[in-house]
Amino acid sequence: MEFIDYLNFQTTQDSEHSTQDFSLVIPLYITEPIALDVDEKGTKRLFSPQELSQGKKLFERNCINCHVGGATLPDPEVSLSLEKLQAASPRRDLIDHLVAFMRQPMTYDGTQETYWCRQLSPSSTSQQQAESLAAFVLTAAQKAPGWGTDSF
Ligand code: HEC
Q1: What band does 2 get if pLDDT is binned at 50, 70 and 90?
Q2: Deepest in the core among 16, 17, 31, 135, taking most CB within 10 A?
């Protein structure tokens, strides 16, 4: 089965002094299950195009206002690019670590809780949904051109 998914990101930012409009289209082609690293032991898990698509929808619903195109609008230094995810401590380019982060967002150096990012409670977002969301973020970081650049 072939499945093609386009990510269409659009947002409008208002500030006191200016209204900035920008839209960004990032194509992400997913035609087959994608293997992603789950933990530091090297465990891999396959995510189907349907799961990634579910993750994309969750991202659009919960994250896009601050993380359009993988950027982090309130704090551009901490984007969702693969490079930044890898360099965080603990590293965030693993499914388990990303899920743990979404359950309890931490500062980039991992020393403190942060209240800037959105926390996903188990009652609002199941483990399966959180894993799909993490898989979407990692796949976009690995494959979508321009994801997480801070050049806005
Ligand atoms: C209200 C704005 C906001 C929303 C909504 C939001 N975030 Fe964040 N996010 C941030 C900010 C700000 C940071 C940087 C926090 C810090 O380092 O203190 C961040 C950091 C992150 C990081 C760490 C990036 C890195 O390079 O280490 C990840 C991963 C992340 N967010 C994922 C998500 C996901 C997934 C969602 C949706 C469920 C989400 N965020 C929703 C503002 C937001």
Answers
A1: very low
A2: 135
pLDDT of residue 139: 94
Q: Whose CA is nearest to atom 22 of ligand 1?
A: 80
Query: Omega before 90 cis (within 30°)?
Result: yes
Q: Vertex 26, ends 85 and 69: CA angle to 5°?
A: 45
Structure tokens at 26: 């990032």
Most ligand 1 atoms within 8 A of CB, residue of 58, 61, 62, 67 to mutate: 67
Q: Write the CA distances from 15 to 21, 70, 152, integer angstroms.
A: 11, 21, 15
Q: What is the pTM of this model?
A: 0.88
- The finding on whether 118 has its CB within 6 A of some atom of ligand 1 is yes
Percent of all residues in the chain with a pLDDT value above 90, rounded to a whole number: 70
Decide whether any atom of ligand 1 lies within 6 Å of the 116 Cβ.
yes
The candidate with the shortest Cα–Cα distance to 102, out of 76, 125, 85, 72, is 125
What ranges make up the beta strands (E) of the chain? 5-14, 19-28, 34-37, 44-47
